[in-house]
Every structure is written in C-alpha cells, then in structure tokens.
Amino acid sequence: MSFSAPGSPPHPQPYPEPGPAPDGIPPQDHAYPGGPFHAAPPAPQGVLRSPTGLATALTWLLGAAVAVHLFSAGAGAYEQSWMRGFAGDTHFDDLELGLSPALTMLAGAFQLLTLLPTVVVFIIWFHRVRSNGGIFRPDAFTLGRGWAIGAWFVPAANCVLPFLIARQTWRASTQRGPDGSDRTAPAPLLTSWWVVWVLSAIVGRVFSRIYMAAETVDELLAAGLLGITADLGTMTAGVLAILFVRRLTAMQNTVATQGPYASA
C-alpha cells in the first residue's frame, strides 16, 4: 500500500508533491526541496509505501513478546523460591521435578514461538521505513537500504549498524522547519530502546551459558537472577520498541501526507 496525500490520484506517484514552499523560500527547479537551496540533492528514486500495516502487526507481536517475558520473569522468580528449599550444594540431577521446571520450560517454549514472527515482521518494517527515508532525504544515509536487512546478521556489527540506520531514518523522517531549515532530530526514545535491548541481549547470552553449565542449586540460583534481569530488560526494551515503531511510522505518515515542511 502506497502513501497518498488527501485529494491525490489513487495511483502511487514516484514521489508525493510537497506542496507550495513557505513564504520566503526561493522556488526550486527540483522536485525534492531538501538541502541547500543553491544545490539541490539527487532526485529521489522509488515509490513510498506505507509502514502502517506492518507497524500495527508489529505492535501486537511485540506486545505478545512483552507478555511472554513477563511470564518468564515470574517463572524465574518462582524457581528461585522453589530452589531455596534445597541445600546449596544439591546437584541438579537430585532435584525433584515439580511445577517450577514445568513453568520454566513453558516460558522457554513461548519465547521461541513469539521470537521468529516478531523478528521477521520487525525486519520487514525496518526495511520499509528505511526505503521511505531514502525517498524523503537521499542525502541522510551512509549505507544502502539493503543494509536495513543485512546489518542484523553481521556479528558484532549488529550491535551498532542497525542503530546507525535507525538514527538516519529518524532524521530523514523529520520535517524541515517552516523556513526550510534542517531541524535537529533528537531521538532519546530510539537511543533508550537500543541501549536497553543490547544490554538485555548480552545479559541473556551470559545467563544461557551459566545456566547450561550450572550443576548445583547455588549455581542455578546465581544464573536464575541473571535470567530474571534479562527478562525484565527485554520486556522494557519491547515496550520502548513499540513506542519507537509507532512514533517513526507516524513521522513518516506526516511527511508523506503533509510534505517535508512543518507548519509555522
């Protein structure tokens, strides 16, 4: 589905008409009004496509993931209380099976069920908004739009490159000032989401390694605290991700329907 401004033809246009420039802005020969007025940027390529449907689906998926991690944190807390009933040097194989291990396994299964669809839809949405950003402001990016997908799969670099792309997309999706000036695009929401998500992912990996190697109750208790911390962090990152997705989608809708200039 492509964007279309009110009153525009039903067929998608290569680029939406930005409307008349505000008073005091010199007219341009170029269809895209960005950049210095004496040197217009390259012509935008491609067709804008609305990210709204993907954002809605992603909101539901992220909400489900948040609920699953809340359940997992609760299961972890219950497991902590259950294991404290055993001596600290009790071996894992000697523990009696009960409700706690069942809840832990159920939480893990729920996490796997929600992970794949959430990741797939998020990457599709992320590529969509990056592509739109490249039409809004081609000069805002240092990496091609294909990196909106590939950056997630590069070891180590996937802790930095997706954030760089998201920040540049945020800037490209910010309306210019009424006088055509380039507005700063502070993004504390984006930064908060990314920092919390990366830290939670690191803690989660440490938890998995320690938990798999644990053999006694004391070791399981120590690992379990890391697991609860990772779940709560991931839950927080999920809430921030929902806010980020909805905000960036709204910003792109505004630019596509109202034009690149903010109203006075």
Describe the structure.
- This protein has 264 residues and is mainly alpha-helical.
- The protein has one domain.
- It contains six helices and no strands.
- About 15% of the residues have low confidence.
**SSE run:** HHHHHH
Number of strands: 0
What overall form do the CA principal axes indicate? elongated
Individual helix count = 6
What count of domains describes the coordinates? 1
First CA to last CA: what distance?
A: 30 Å
Question: Major β-sheet, in short?
Answer: none
Strand content: under 5%
* Assembly category: single chain
Fraction of residues in helices? 55-70%
In short:
The protein is mostly helical and 264 residues long. It contains six helices and no strands.
What descriptors fit this protein?
single chain; mainly alpha
Topology record:
Elements: H1 52-83, H2 99-136, H3 147-150, H4 161-172, H5 188-213, H6 217-258
Helix pairs in contact: 1-2, 1-6, 2-4, 2-6, 5-6
